[in-house]
Amino acid sequence: MQYDNIKQSLGNVFNRNPFLRKCFYGMLDLLLLRAWHIKKELRRIKKNLPADALVLDAGAGFGQYAYYMSKLGRRWRIKAVDVKAGQVEDCNQFFAQIGRNDRVRFEVADLTEFREPDKYCLAISVDVMEHIPDDAAVFRNICASLGPDGVLLISTPSDRGGSDADEHHGSFVDEHVRDGYSVDEIRDKLTAAGFSDIDVQYTYGRPGHISWLLSMKYPMLMLRASKLFFILLPFYYLVTFPFCFLLNWRDTCARHKSGTGLKVKAVKSHR
After folding, report:
1. Domain 3-204+256-268 class?
2. What is the pTM of this model?
3. Nearest alpha carbon to residue 122 among 59, 193, 57, 55
């Protein structure tokens, strides 16, 4: 299923002015469980970062994580890169409108080629690596771009059904080039790229998976069937969101033995 077209349609509706854009970010933060996990981990990482840290958002998308980090670290300087020129231009315009373009800058870049040696304290990559065939090159480039003790934070699907794949229909998300990482695979690739202290945790355990079905998969299927569902979408979430909120909260409070997502934190090694 093509998520990108539907996500872009939703983005076009909310990107008409800064207030709607902030509402869109707020909606994504509440509905997307990965945002719950990433924001919780960023709050922990912040404690060990300098107040004026340089941060890389590797694969920035709509810019919601750059926006959150610009609030979390008021003096952080953030470079956000993405391959889609239209999104980069749109995000730069939004951050200029809200007066944060002095600290947040978006640029067009291919992560398989992007490298700025020993520059950043923190890099995040959320919902990105499953889209890139040459992931090893990206891991090497990010590691090279981090300074000493620089931290990488990743959210990506696991091989436990993170793309909702099955043997007959393949990946539910057609844009994914892999159906997810195993714990050992992503740890080995990060080690080979130059990282150490690699902590890999499952996300989207049973509570999170149920929330994902209710908040993302079923609405996307209905939107694909008919754009008229846009009209019914607010009423659908009015009923389902309280359950999704509790399920997301439960997912972030537990350490899961298995799950359809992975949260990975790694530190640049001193070798």
Report:
1. alpha beta
2. 0.90
3. 55
